[in-house]
Amino acid sequence: MKLLPIFSWAVVIWVAKVFLLSLPYKFTLHPDTQHIFGTIGAWMQGFLGNTIGSLFANYGSYAVGGVELITSLVLLSPALFWVLKKVGILSCAPSRALMHAIGGLMASAVMAGAAFFHLFTPLGIEVIHEGKSDGGSLFYTAVSILILGFILFVTNYRNYKNK
After folding, report:
1. Per-residue confidence (pLDDT) for residue 47, from 0 to 100
2. 34-92: pLDDT as tens digits
3. Cα–Cα distance measured from residue 140 to residue 13, given in angstroms and rounded to the nearest whole number
């Protein structure tokens, strides 16, 4: 089954690219990030109270960014493990299939949250901030990672269990 590793790495590169390139926005509280997390935080206040809504508005981008960073590291770790084994620093490491299964599940979970917030809060599918629309690109990217992450999990977990 030589296609699975190629498929896995293609998905991993897409997910890691999206997650890692979004980190500067999330960690520096870019105005677009403040709008997104502020909108969701305000919506949360109606259900979960002012404290939780305010916490999400102020710190949600750090939490989500942290999870996306950890997910990217998990997904990319087989490449590092391979290098460390080649130079003799590591003798044993988790398999690519296992790490891609775990990372796929993590990516899918975090994007399930993103898709939920786009669909069921005032944020909407198309994010409009300062009169500019993203055309739904954030939502469609989240859905693509939600689906591909789940496929990554299922295919790699089955492969891992069959070995």
Report:
1. 86
2. 999 999 999 999 989 999 999 999 999 999 999 999 999 999 999 999 999 999 999 99
3. 17
Q: 133 pairs with which residues across the strands?
A: 128
Cα–Cα distance for residue pair 140/122, rounded to 1 Å? 17
From 162, 25, 160, 32, select the one nearest 104 (Cα to Cα). 160
- Total residue length of the chain: 163
Q: Tokens 């990030």 — which residue?
A: 33
Backbone angles phi, psi at 146, to 5 degrees: -60, -50
The span from the CA of 161 to the CA of 15, in Å, is 24
Quote the crossing angle between the two packed helices 96-120 and 3-27, to the nearest 10°: 50
Q: Exposed, middle or buried by CB within 10 Å (0-12, 13-18, 19+), for 153?
A: buried
How do beta strands 128-129 and 132-133 pair? antiparallel
Please say whether the dihedral angle defined by the alpha carbons of residues 103, 108, 109 and 111, taken in this order, is positive or negative.
positive
pLDDT tens digits, one per residue of 95-133 = 999 999 999 999 999 999 999 999 999 999 999 998 899
